[in-house]
Design goal:
The complex is a heterodimer.
Chain A lengths: L1 H8 L21 E5 L2 E5 L5 H7 L23 E4 L6 E2 L10 E3 L3 H14 L17 H10 L16 E2 L4 E3 L9 H8 L6 E4 L6 E4 L11 H6 L5 E3 L12 E6 L8 E7 L2 E7 L12 H4 L3 H4 L7 E2 L6 E2 L2 H15 L5 E5 L5 H13 L5 E4 L20 H11 L2 E4 H10 L4 E5 L7 H8 L4 E6 L4 H4 L3 E4 L8 E4 L5 E4 L12 H11 L9 H8 L4 H4 L42
Parallel strand pairs in A: 1-5, 16-17, 16-19, 17-18, 19-20, 20-21
Antiparallel strand pairs in A: 1-2, 3-4, 3-5, 6-7, 7-10, 8-9, 11-12, 12-13, 14-15, 14-21, 22-23
Helix pairs in contact in A: 3-4, 10-11, 10-15, 10-16
Chain B lengths: L29 E5 L11 E7 L2 E8 L7 H6 L7 H5 L6 H16 L5 H29 L3 H22 L21 H23 L3 H7 L7 H7 L3 H5 L7 H4 L20 H25 L17 H6 L1 H13 L6 E9 L2 E9 L5 E7 L1 H7 L1 H5 L7 H8 L3 H5 L1
The chains are: A alpha/beta, B mainly alpha.
Chain lengths: 576, 413
Amino acid sequence: MSESDDTEAAPKPPPPPAGPPRPAPKHPGFITLSVDGKEVVAKADTNLITAAKTAGADIPYYCWHHRLSIAANCRMCLVESSTSPKLVPACQTALQEGMSVRTNTARVAESQRSVMEFLLLNHPVDCAICDQAGECKLEDYYQRHDFKPSRVEGSKLLRNKRKVLGPLVVLDQERCVQCTRCIRFMDEVAKESQLGMFGRGSEEYIDVFPGTQLTSNYSGNVVDLCPVGALLNRDFRFRARTWFLSTVASVCTGCSRGCNIYVDFMGQDTYRYRPRENDAINQSWMCDQGRLSYKPLNLERVLCPSVGRADDRRETTAAEALAKATVQLKAMAGTAELAVLVSPTCSNEDLLAGLTFAKDALGVRQLYVGGHPDGQADTFLMRADKNPNRKGMEWIAAALGLSLHPFTELLQTIDAGTVKALYVLGAEVPMAEAEAAAKVAKVEFVAVQAANASALTAQADVVLPAAAHVEEEGTFVQADSVIQRFRRAYPPRRETQGHWKWAVDIMREFGFPVTYASARDVFHALAGKVPELAGFDWDKEAPPLKTTRGLAPLPSAADGRPPGYREFGTPRIRGI
Amino acid sequence: MADPMDMAVGGAGPDAEEGELEAHLHTKRMLINMGPSHPAMHGTVRTRIELEGETIVRAIPEIGFLHRGFQKSCENVTWNQCLPYTDRLNYVSALMNNFGFLNAVERLAGITIPERAQYIRVIGAELHRIHDHLTCVGSIGLELGGFAPFLYAIEGRELVMDRVTELTGARLTTSFGRVGGLNRDLPEGWTARVLKTLDKCHELIGEIDTLLTANRIFVDRMQGVGIITSDDAQDFGFTGPCLRATGVPYDVRKAYPYWVYDRMDFDVPVGVNGDNFDRYLMRLEELKHSESIVRQALKDIPTGPIIVDDWRIALPPKPEVYGTIEGVIAHFKLVMEGVPVPAGEVYDCTEAANGELGWYLVSDGSGRPYKVHVRAPGFAILSGLPRMIEGRMLADLIPTFDTINMIGGEVEQ
């Protein structure tokens, strides 16, 4: 980056003396080198750390990151190379034809041990209270490369242990190893230079500039990047020990970008989202808004079917709720008195089943579109459309011959008094909830499938509790028409079930012989009608089933619940 | 005629014809269940016995009442956390299971434990061999009607148990030792107390010997009963006292010496007839040799560390854990992830009280076992029970079952 600018400005040094001629490449177009005696063939711009991995050599590193510039300041990746008499940092060493690299000699091991001892010189005795414990590179590398007692006599340097950098990030300066990943991320990726390195020598520390805060919408990524427990997520801090969390690959529903994520969960609670590598969509990052969008999965959920409005509201069985909805809706099916509101937050499977129900059973020809209102956007990841599956909804509606109309039109028809019954698939509305609910209250009969309680569900005569996306499997179509599978983290809470399942159940009540038993069944049966979805291989396109990261939590029960589950109550588990 | 094994005990069915209702003596075989809850069927093993009069025609041992999923449980915990499960294999000599398992893990990981730890393991193992054999010999006497030898044996056993309690902190389920050595050293003044205990045990064993070995009733019921030939015994996979009673001098401590057994002066007693009496004599002899081994080991035991000095294997000392980041990291990694045992597989065995206690371990390189299989000596021996007892009288089952010393915990795992 700035290196080239500096050399431009400075007087040019004399060209280096011509060395011995470079050998001709063994594999033209590639560079052939040897790592620990094994031949490695790689492209010229491959990093040595990556190249060595293909030969099975796991070179340790802190400061290097494949999406950031190279700093080579942690010295953990020093290896022996035939191109230099001294040890060289693997992250910064360009591949050369015929070079021989050794990563496992006594000299390299001693260097790694020394670096580890050096990094731990001033490190506080914090593992027991540190959020990073279990996924900390200091722990991993100490145990692999040092495993010797401390030789420190006297006290350690004391620094600020809880420096709040911004709304989402807090810094423990004592734990920092000064790898500068966070600074480079803010400079190069977020392009908001809000972090800097201050002081010199062992007094060096990371901080924000005086009078400013780490306010970037991408600040959460520095927590992921931090190889140690220095930068911590204020939202996640002290909430869970990482080795108890299970992880599943999913997709963020915060906006229509569809960033790939890992959902970290325990029992039937989601604890955090972390970005998952996808070169085409979000690289290694995600925005803070998306990162915090897991909260509705845990809070304000509708957990039980209920019937009756306001004071008459009572919880009931699924059978009674379905029966009531069926009687009311059947009476008005096929007439203009019945309207259907559909949310683009639902997955394709939910929409395939739900819209088939709307068309075949309710006999509607037009749908009103709900969903979250537009919000902020930026030029990096965040999109203005805060609904994860608008594209999918449009495709499916078009394929079924249903026209889509804006939410305001629905309100107009309600005002005109033509709509007597409303069936809602996903209770999100693109305007102030209370205002929308006040209008919907005028409709004689409202049946709602919703995951979260809202002003709208309060006005519903029948509420069917829907599963959140982490509780179901399915697909979303993001804004650039990429179809993405997401996996189920845990079974639906209490009485909730997927939107698709409610649609199937109510269709059965209507007398249609539908037998889909899973979201997969729905997709396989109905996606063929949608040309854009027809070619999608639902099974093959799934993200990896399980990722082991840190300590893989062990299922303690036959249903795969992780340990620690009992501390969080014993919700009724269905569907495993 | 239907297989009598499938019929209800005795008598004709409800639809029997009149002629069948006459009582014909000696025409029907009787099926009886010995166990699972029978005081002479140690543990909870059931033997289905088909009797012709009082003669056993068929005996089918049935195991599984004490199955605890040992092998699968081990796959879900770290290597050191397997120890409490191994206690419950042979609960009469838990230390030998602990140490046998650790020895196999250490062999797989290529760890040599400190010499002092090797001595302590020998002492612990031999103490528990005394414990195990005393229990066996005492209960043989008891079940053949001699209550006094049982009391003597249990008195000695209690003393040994007290010493084991002082050493490990537990009477029965010791969970003693760690990968790489031991978790604690000999307590202060323990050596002197062990020597006194051995003196007392020596005296008690002498009493038992006097009461039983030349006792006419005892000898008549033991000698020539429950015979197995050395060929049969080897075919069934017998090891330990039951094999040696047939004349085969196989003892893992001599054949493949481990720890410091090669420095100990002891003999392997061998029998001649392979009957109950020889098996009883083997145990009585071994009691004396074990006592001698403990005395030698206590005399020669060197000072020094009791566990390897490597924080990848052994937990750091507590002051290091509480006071330094290095200690706390090593502690955290060892407790949460376990000792990283290199990927590979191993079969390793030690001489337990009832024979060769073998371990087939597979590691995938993580801190938890990929596979743990235990070769319990009692399993092979129990499988030979029908061969030893069929054709004998029902009453002979009791001493035979006693002398094979089947332990439900290890057989049924």
